[in-house]
Amino acid sequence: MTGITRLRDFVVGFHRLLDDRPDEPRILREGGALLAQLVAQDDWLPEPFARPDPTYYQQHLLYADASERFSVVSFVWGPGQATPVHDHTVWGLIGMLRGAEISQGYGPDADGCWQPQGAPVHLRPGQVEAVSPRVGDVHRVRNALADQVSISIHVYGANIGAVARHTYPAEGGRKRFVSGYSNAVLPNLWDRSAEVRAATS
């Protein structure tokens, strides 16, 4: 199995998981295992969804469930790029495909200012991390590499580009944002014509 087939099989597997109406711990456990299988191989992400931008990290939508139960996104980090401190408001899974990234959790201090909390998590290819309001939802993420691109694959329990979320400035409080997506087209997961031709020839 190579190419876009890996992503298609992941999407089908995630649909089957959610069709069973699992609770969040099961989604994070079994969905995390599915994502770990996907990012264990780095031969399937189409090049247009792996392109960095010299100024900003890119968030490319790869797939969104028609009922917006989940979405799959490639995050492309240029050297040294980072997010602000932010939340998600829904469950999420982050799988490292290429390069490395560092995620630092944050929590409020006595004055309501958001400070680093706990040890940073260093993700390398094949590793998966979970976020959610239940297990920890506020963090800052950065490319761990100063001289090369890193790519992580994220799965969220919503159409994440259309979710009202928040950033957390150092001086306290929070600011609303909606991330959107960097791409205007999606990868074609559903053209199985070559497989069918090969099977019937």
Automatic annotation (TrEMBL):
The keyword Zinc-finger does not apply. Gene3D superfamilies: ATP synthase delta/epsilon subunit, C-terminal domain (1.20.5.440), Jelly Rolls (2.60.120.10). The keyword Oxidoreductase applies. It holds the Pfam family CDO_I. InterPro entries: CDO_1, RmlC-like_jellyroll, RmlC_Cupin_sf. Fe cation binds at residues 86, 88, 139. Keywords: Dioxygenase, Iron, Metal-binding, Oxidoreductase. It comes from the Bacteria. GO terms for molecular function: ferrous iron binding; oxidoreductase activity, acting on single donors with incorporation of molecular oxygen, incorporation of two atoms of oxygen. Belongs to the cysteine dioxygenase family. This is Putative metal-dependent enzyme (Double-stranded beta helix superfamily).
